[in-house]
Amino acid sequence: MKRLFAWIILLVGACDHVEAVDRDTDEWTDADSDGDSDGDSDADSDIDADADSDSDADTDSDADTDSDADDTDSDIPTPVNYCLSFDGDGDYVRIPHDERLNLGDAWTVEAWMKFNAGAEVLLPVLRKGDADTTVSAYFLYARFNGGFAVAGFRTSDNSFISLSPAETLSSGRWTHLALTHDAGFARFFIDGVMVDEWDSSYVFTNNTSDLIIGALLHSDNLGYMDGFIDEVRISNVVRYNAAFTPAQENALDADTIALWHFNEGDGVVVTDEANGLSGHLWGNTGYALR
To answer: What's the rounded Cα separation, in Å, for the pair 163 and 186?
Structure first.
């Protein structure tokens, strides 16, 4: 009996020990579960941190990209439109004679100009003729004697044909002047409107004089522009036969003999975009923003 009782006691103890281990196992399991939960949380936190880091990196990268784009944009120069400025006292541009400036039967001479209030009544824009030239081959004036704008050309008998509007031009505003010539007619346009027309059966005659912008240098009728000149273009074609809207910046094409934009902005040399016919600034001729 004693042995049997001892075995029973041993068996009961063993069961208790197994239950205790099971409980401990459950606690371990719970602990592992808690541990796994903490581990997952830490892992999620790490993932979130990495994502945030990546997001921040992307944001920084985008910011850098934007910054680079801004830097790139800032490196692109803003186009600047200059014009020539004349003070009315000895200023002009001289472009040496070139055979290409001698025109044929069909041609157009044009320019933008603005003269100052109180300017003299003689305001040359351009003239193919220097101090030794009595009659220029072709010319544009914002004002001539009498105050009217005049455009014209030389004939074979050394006289000239002039065209003029019925009204004088206003100071302080940009105005486009254009003279066209062909085998039938000469036409004078102001701001795209034809203001005069002439039967051009007269023979047009060239010369070997320099092209002068902003002055009439002949001692018998000396005069200088007091204002601004821009976008001088000479073409070997009639560009305008009827009303048109003048371009603010003249375009270069196959019919362009010479085109001066005057966008140099500095220095004493202006260059023709079509054929490289350079001119020299004299007096106080300078540049101004248009």
So the answer is: 8
> What would the pLDDT profile of 207-236 be if each residue is shown by its tens digit?
999 999 999 998 777 899 999 999 999 999
Q: What is the mean pLDDT of the chain?
A: 80
Q: Confirm or reject CATH 2.60.120.200 for domain 82-289, answering yes or no.
A: yes
Placement of tokens 């000396």 in the chain: 222
Alpha-helical runs (H) found in the chain? 2-75
What confidence category does residue 41 fall into, taking pLDDT thresholds of 50, 70 and 90?
Answer: very low
Q: Average of pLDDT values for 81-99?
A: 97
At a CB cut-off of 8 Å and minimum separation 6, what does 118 contact?
171, 226
Phi first, then psi, for residue 170 (nearest 5°) are -90, 145
Amino acid at 116: N
């009315």: which residue's tokens? 88
Q: How far is 224 from 283, CA to CA, in rounded Å?
A: 11
- pLDDT tens figures, 235-290: 999 999 999 999 999 999 999 999 999 999 999 999 999 999 999 999 999 999 99
Domain spans in the chain, listed from the N-terminal domain onward: 1-76, 82-289
Helices vs strands, H then E, count in the chain: 1, 18
**What is the value of pTM for the model shown?**
0.73
Q: How far apart are CA 177 and CA 126, in angstroms?
A: 11
Of 196, 221, 211, 230, whose CA–CA distance to 275 is shortest? Answer: 211
Q: What would the DSSP string read from start to end of 177-239?
A: EEEEE-SSEEEEEETTEEEEEEE--SPB---SPPEEESEE--GGG-EE-EEEEEEEEEESS--
Q: Are 113 and 270 in contact (CB under 8 A)?
A: no
